[in-house]
UniProtKB/TrEMBL annotation:
<dbReference type="InterPro" id="IPR016024">
    <property type="entry name" value="ARM-type_fold"/>
</dbReference>
<dbReference type="InterPro" id="IPR011989">
    <property type="entry name" value="ARM-like"/>
</dbReference>
<dbReference type="InterPro" id="IPR002583">
    <property type="entry name" value="Ribosomal_bS20"/>
</dbReference>
<dbReference type="InterPro" id="IPR036510">
    <property type="entry name" value="Ribosomal_bS20_sf"/>
</dbReference>
<dbReference type="InterPro" id="IPR019538">
    <property type="entry name" value="PSMD5"/>
</dbReference>
<keyword id="KW-0694">RNA-binding</keyword>
<keyword id="KW-0687">Ribonucleoprotein</keyword>
<protein>
    <recommendedName>
        <fullName>30S ribosomal protein S20, chloroplastic</fullName>
    </recommendedName>
</protein>
<keyword id="KW-0699">rRNA-binding</keyword>
<dbReference type="Pfam" id="PF10508">
    <property type="entry name" value="Proteasom_PSMB"/>
</dbReference>
<keyword id="KW-0689">Ribosomal protein</keyword>
<dbReference type="Pfam" id="PF01649">
    <property type="entry name" value="Ribosomal_S20p"/>
</dbReference>
């Protein structure tokens, strides 16, 4: 029992070591506990909780190393016995061990395929796929996938005799529905390994099992799983085309799911998966365009069908159209049919009576309009563009919730109505506007509605990160389209351009938006002399008409304003007679309300100074005309989102330093204990140095726990680990002898 406890402790330390284990660590561990000892311990029944799982995890880490994998061929009978074990954990370990043997083979060793065949391991792996639980079946499937990468394994996995018991077709025929799905999944995995293996799968006729399963079952779960497998196979169309040139024919079969004996929902699910396949740019190199047209017509007919009364099915069909239209060719097909299949998308996108359909349709419209395509590819052919414009205008004209007006005015109302709904709907609306703004008519409709610009440029509209980014991308797209259009020279659009530019400059995560002070220009008479141009940049500041006989009086009048000034300057209209100012610094208070000046520069002719909040002052003398410019400094609150980001980054760096310090201290202790343990003539006094290091490590761990960089349980485990390692070194050298009775009592307590 004592040996088992020692094995458990050592295996637990080895299995849960935080860093990678090298060959030297494995050799050291196996020198203490050879593999036969561990195998025998696995066959014993113990009352130690987690004993089997700990040993299995330990062996997994051993066999993943180069040295551990080199020992596997010497224990093939033990491996075969593990595959026949009743424990699912041991079976999974045996499968993973075979995978390690295949992945870490040495060129000088015996072929691992010969070892697997001669020991009868492959039939056991196939049996696990159809009879074991999901974990063991997955491990066996991954092992067969690793085996298929060897050229000499092709004859083993794909036997020429179709009546062979290991033939995957026969295996699927004698399996249950769930097991058949597992076998079909294995076939798809093998198909994706390499062109050589894919050719073997195709020549064996195993891909036909997918279509046969679709036609031969009415089990909904099986059908949906087979459809997903079709999608995985569909991603490999180009590879299949390179094999034998039959990719287009296989593409027709993969997208034609409108069997008469398949349920309506299954057809829609198949259409949606086909849409995902057709959303890839290079898919049209292997799929015939007529096949895609047939699929679009089938989806169009399903949306027109009276059976389309299920909201989920309607959303799935709309999503399929959106996925197909995400590419340039797909968008042309969806918009150019007669009538256009995209009419269902546009009609549902602005139908507020069914919010679920509206949300799905808005995202589909964004795909069709080119939101995910490069900017240079968003515009499709002329006929499709005209159909898209007419569809949107027709829906706007037929809308009963908008006041009667021109069609373009109603289309503006459609876009605005989307942006006035929930956050999810606004997100879809941002995506749609991002794509439509690439069209001149779309840009005109958006710029003509000031409410749309206000929503898009308002950084306080959204609170979620994804919505903030979508709003910012929409704003940036509108701004870029605006700069490239003729509207940029229109003086009526000047404020709109400034607003868009400011919103783009502010970024997506600005929580509040503050406008800079706008100038207010007034002309006043200076004691009957020539007029002065008085310009004050203020936020709600009170402008006073005062008599400014002198420069000092002018400054005093400026100081009487309510605004806090950032820059104050007095300069003439002509600089010919200006004099260079000399700089000086003021630190003066005037009254309770005045604040300390900072770095004010003024000319020598100014004999009196007035205290401002902060800023610069300069004077240029001109006997005819003078200009006073006061720029206000409105107090801006910190951007809450940016502030939170800064705080989070500060905390992350601080916590990282605390955790790093704790790890470094622990590493020093462990290295010192390992060196002390290996030292044959170690003295008891040497443990004092290690105890000092342990104290420093404890302190670092406690500090990390105190600031919550580490959980308190994690800190306790790490300190306990150091104490156990120290105790093990003391026992190793005989400096500490544990109390047998206390140890027995502790073991009984742990067992209870």
């Amino acid at each position: 029992m004592e040996d088992v406890n020692q094995l458990f402790d050592a295996a637990f330390e080895f299995a849960h070591y935080p860093g990678p284990q090298g060959d030297s660590s494995v050799k050291e561990f196996l020198d203490r506990f050879p593999l036969p000892v561990i195998f025998n311990a696995l066959q014993r029944e113990t009352d130690i909780p987690g004993f089997e799982t700990t040993l299995v995890t330990c062996l997994e880490r051993v066999f993943k190393t180069k040295y551990g994998a080199s020992l596997i061929p010497h224990y093939m009978p033990v491996l075969q016995a593990g595959l026949k074990s009743d424990s699912a954990v041991v079976k999974s370990l045996a499968c993973k061990t075979v995978t390690c043997l295949l992945e870490n083979r040495d060129a000088n060793d015996v072929s691992p395929v010969q070892l697997i065949v001669s020991n009868g391991i492959y039939p056991l792996l196939l049996e696990y796929i159809i009879k074991s639980d999901d974990e063991v079946a997955h491990a066996a499937s991954e092992t067969i996938k690793s085996l298929a990468r060897f050229p000499d394994a092709t004859s083993v996995i794909f036997p020429t005799d179709t009546n062979d018991a290991t033939h995957l077709g026969n295996l699927a025929a004698r399996s249950s529905s769930l097991a058949r799905v597992r076998v079909l999944s294995l076939i798809v995995k093998l198909f994706s390994i390499s062109p050589h293996v894919a050719s073997a799968v195709k020549n064996s006729g195993l891909l036909d099992l997918l279509e046969a399963e679709m036609k031969g079952t009415k089990d909904t779960l099986v059908i949906l799983n087979v459809l997903e497998l079709y999608y995985e196979v569909g991603l490999l169309f180009p590879r299949l085309l390179l094999i034998n040139g039959s990719g287009a024919q296989f593409g027709v079969r993969a997208t034609d799911f409108t069997y008469s004996d398949v349920l309506f929902y299954h057809q829609l699910r198949a259409m949606m998966i086909s849409g995902r396949l057709l959303s890839r740019d290079n898919i049209y190199n292997t799929v015939d365009e007529a096949c895609v047209k047939a699929l679009v017509s089938a989806i169009d007919a399903s949306l027109e069908s009276p059976e389309m009364n299920d909201t989920n099915a309607h959303e799935a069909a709309l999503d399929a159209l959106g996925q197909i239209g995400s590419t340039t060719k797909g968008a042309n097909l969806v918009l150019s049919t007669t009538p256009p299949a995209a009419r269902h998308v546009v009609a549902s996108a602005f139908d507020r009576n069914a919010l679920g359909k509206q949300l799905a349709a808005l995202h589909a419209l964004a795909y069709i309009a080119g939101e995910t395509r490069p900017k240079s590819s968003r515009i499709v052919d002329e006929k499709s563009e005209e159909n898209l414009r007419c569809l949107i205008y027709d829906v706007a004209a037929q809308s009963t919730k908008l006041t009667p007006s021109a069609r373009h005015t109603k289309s503006q109302g459609l876009f605005l109505s989307v942006l006035q709904q929930s956050s999810e709907m606004r997100l879809a609306g941002y995506r749609t506007l991002t794509a439509l703004v690439a069209r001149p008519w779309g840009l005109m409709e958006i710029l003509s509605k000031e409410e749309i610009i206000n929503i898009v440029t308002d950084a306080t509209t959204e609170t979620a990160k994804i919505a903030m980014e979508a709003r910012y991308n929409c704003c940036k797209a509108i701004h870029e389209a605006f700069l490239c259009s003729n509207f940029v020279d229109d003086p009526r659009r000047l404020k709109t351009g400034e607003k868009l530019q400011e919103a783009v400059r502010s970024g997506p995560y600005m929580s509040k938006k503050y406008r800079d002070a706008r100038p207010e220009v007034r002309r006043i008479e200076r004691l009957g002399q020539e007029p002065l141009l008085f310009t004050s940049y203020g936020v709600g500041g009170e402008q006073r008409k005062v008599s400014m006989a002198t420069i000092v009086q002018c400054l005093s009048s400026c100081a009487a304003l309510n605004s806090k000034f950032k820059v104050l300057s007095l300069k003439g209209a002509s600089s010919s007679s200006s004099s260079s100012p000399t700089s000086s610094s003021l630190s003066t208070r005037r009254g309770a309300s005045a604040t300390v000046c900072s770095s004010l520069s003024f000319s020598q002719s100014v004999s009196q100074c007035v205290a401002f909040s902060s800023g610069n002052l300069w004077v240029q003398k001109n006997p005819l005309r003078q200009l006073i410019v006061c720029e206000a400094a409105p107090t801006k609150k910190a951007d809450s989102a940016a502030k939170r980001a800064r705080q989070a980054e500060k905390r992350r760096v601080y916590n990282k330093s605390k955790k790093s310090e704790a790890r470094t201290r622990m590493k020093k202790v462990l290295e010192a204990l390992d060196g002390l343990k290996k030292k044959p003539d170690a003295q008891p006094d040497e443990i004092v140095t290690v105890e000092k290091l342990i104290g420093e490590a404890y302190s670092a761990i406690d500090k990390a726990v105190k600031v919550r960089a580490l959980h308190k349980n994690t800190g306790a485990r790490r300190k306990s680990r150091l104490a156990r390692r120290k105790k093990a070194v003391e026992i190793h050298h005989g400096w500490y002898v544990p109390d047998t009775a206390a140890a027995t009592t502790e073991a009984v307590t742990m067992a209870a």
